[in-house]
Amino acid sequence: MAGSPHLFEHDLPPGLHYRDDFITETEEQELLDAIAGITFSDFEMRGVVARRRVAFFGQSYDDMTVRPLPSFLLPLRASVAHWASVEADAFAMALINEYRPGSPIGWHRDAPQYDIVAGISLLSPCRMKFRPYRSTASTVPPGRRTATHEIVLARRSAYLMTRESRTAYEHHIPPVNEFRYSVTFRTLR
Fold this sequence. Notes:
The protein is mainly β.
């Protein structure tokens, strides 16, 4: 499942690692076939229902255990863990996102109880943007902030957010053009 990294090809925040062709076309199709049997739910954050739908497995955002990881995700989790140089069980949660055309993810940092964040793109590419994180207690005057880094997450690619890319930056995905899925794994701190 591991693809080869392309050095100097992307302008990435420190600690962000990216690989094209992390999984094969056959592996992607097997994942898509299994995902077709998953029940998705609306995702609500701070009282707003997102345009994407989700399926959570393992340790959830609110520290409650939800459904165990399905067996079809275990080989993918093992490949991601090998790349990240951690034990597979360290990835305590999985999230499958379903994006319909026009679905975005707003600016955010992942929940603080998580450490490494790994993502795999399925079915179509998307853009992911990064900008320095500014806490609500920041002394920097409010105003429009712009992305400092952007990457296209190709179909079947993977990324790892570690160190500064995870803690010193926030990220978002602008509205997607085509139907897609992503699988996200997270380790606990």
